[in-house]
Amino acid sequence: MGAILIRCPNTNELVPVGIDTDRDSFEALPNIAAKAIRCPSCGKDHPWSREDAILDTTCRPMRKK
């Protein structure tokens, strides 16, 4: 599993779109415009598509229950 990220065009930071998925599901996403996200980096809305995104599969600490 990994988080889908896009690059903010204003700050150049990678920001999450709020979707976690596996590599096969990510690759199967159609390359169409998705609902714009509110960017936590700059505060503006950014439309995105699979072509604009990456899947971050680096290890992240697990949340405590």
Order of helices and strands: EEHEEE
Biggest β-sheet: strands ordered side by side in the sheet: 2-1-5
> Based on DSSP secondary structure assignment, what is the total number of beta strands?
5
Helix content: under 10%
Strand content: 35-45%
Calculate the mean pLDDT score and round it: 90
Shape: globular
What structural class do you assign from the helix and strand content? mainly beta
Largest sheet: 3 strands, antiparallel
> Could you say how many structural domains there are in total?
1
Radius of gyration: 12 Å
Q: How widely separated are the two ends? A: 19 Å
Task: Fill in the keyword field for this structure.
65 residues, mainly beta, 3-stranded antiparallel β-sheet, 1 helix, 5 strands, globular
Q: What would you say this structure looks like, in words?
A:
This protein is mainly beta. Helix content is 9%, strand content 42%. The protein has one domain (2-56).
Topology, element by element:
Elements (H helix, E strand, L loop, with lengths): L1 E6 L6 E8 L1 H6 L5 E5 L6 E4 L4 E4 L9
Antiparallel strand pairs: 1-2, 1-5, 3-4
Would you kindly provide a brief summary of this structure?
With 65 residues, this protein is mainly beta.
